[in-house]
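It is worth pausing here to work through a concrete case rather than discussing structure prediction in the abstract. The textbook approach is simple: state the sequence, then state the predicted structure, then interpret. We follow exactly that order.
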Amino acid sequence: MQFNNEAVGQTIREIRKSRNISQEVLSGLAGMSRTHLTMIENGSKQANFETIWRISQALNMRPSELVYMIEVQVENKYDKV
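Step two, the predicted structure:
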């Protein structure tokens, strides 16, 4: 399995939207700018572990849950060759 910024962003975006949370609200809860969150969701910026931690806490989930969901996204969409 290979790391993929797009899978990270897509997973975060899908969770955020499924919970009807705006980028503005999520970025505020996670203590980051909306622009930073947008770049992560678009896959143009790599999220470090501290950022994943803060986003997961803002989404009221464990970091391990978020990482697992990202892994599933990578396996399902990006790792098929």
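Step three, interpretation. DSSP finds five helices and no strands in the chain. Residues 27 and 34 are 5 Å apart (CA to CA).
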